[in-house]
Write a structure and sequence with these properties.
eight-stranded parallel beta barrel, alpha/beta, TIM Barrel, globular, homodimer, 46% helix
Amino acid sequence: MKLQVAIDVLTTEAALEIAGKVAEYVDIIELGTPLVKSEGLSAVTAIKEAHPDKIVFADLKTMDAGELEADIAFKAGADLVSVLGGADDSTIAGAVKAAKDHNKGIVVDLIGVADKVTRAKEARALGAKFIEFHAGLDEQAKPGYNLDVLLSAGEEARVPFSVAGGVNLSTIGAVQRAGADVAVVGGSIYGADDPALAAKQLRAAII
Amino acid sequence: MKLQVAIDVLTTEAALEIAGKVAEYVDIIELGTPLVKSEGLSAVTAIKEAHPDKIVFADLKTMDAGELEADIAFKAGADLVSVLGGADDSTIAGAVKAAKDHNKGIVVDLIGVADKVTRAKEARALGAKFIEFHAGLDEQAKPGYNLDVLLSAGEEARVPFSVAGGVNLSTIGAVQRAGADVAVVGGSIYGADDPALAAKQLRAAII
């Protein structure tokens, strides 16, 4: 199972600082949506230039103009770009076309999708490299939120998948047991007092 | 009915050029999602500084972290920020909170939402200033696409609403007759040989 750090900060400088601390322990460096919107795709270029050996994930959460948005992100240096599961099939297909042109990959993010298992299978059939079973920051903040629902859905869908939604040191084992290909960790790394130590411990927890 | 130009170009320079040509004929200047992702929120700031008397709409299509994304867009100079109708209620509510803090507004974009009438009412109840009945660029490109479905839904929802989905000189009359508060025109202005003339004609078509 790969380890992906989701860097949800608002400046390229802060993202570079965190990436510099944790890169050696992670496989995929994700630039969060607010960061891309705040700084633009130059943030993606900066991270890729600083970490050319890492997989760089631009969390665009594309909802329309799939081919265009994916194309400009790949040109900026992204290796993976996210498209929303709620997007039209043609948007996902357009983004996949751009990915094929660049020999890169599209991740379909199921945030907000009610029937995640069905949509995961559809998105995989449309050409997504893997599917992200994802509960957003706003959803995680609600009472009663539980990661298990995502893990069960991921397990059931039988597609390559990642899990994002408050994964931390106490839950990463369950993520791996559910068969995830990628564990996405955000706040538990970038919000830690010692991000490098947090990433190192998470890496060590993957068997 | 207000006229909104959606500027779907990829550089701040190109956006400023089009805005400069058409501003006198429009009420709202929208910076498209690919532009914001490409250039960052500095594009919003540049347009607002060049056109302080216009309503500047940042088409963030926010899906998560509603309060955060809206807050940074308002701070950058936006007067209106879009949140996806497919987002969690808490995401819309968070964005509305940021709008109230800045005395600005949230537009909920119904792109990709199946039951647009129901979601429009819910989004309005959550505090959206108006609701955008929207067919995306990818959806418009599909065979059989027809603006009438959006207009009927907007009329039925009985909320303040805008319409976006290939509005042009031959359809803007129908948009107004459906009771829209805002007509959103993209390609028919920014893609015209003479954007200023196109905007002037669209303005003149509003009674």
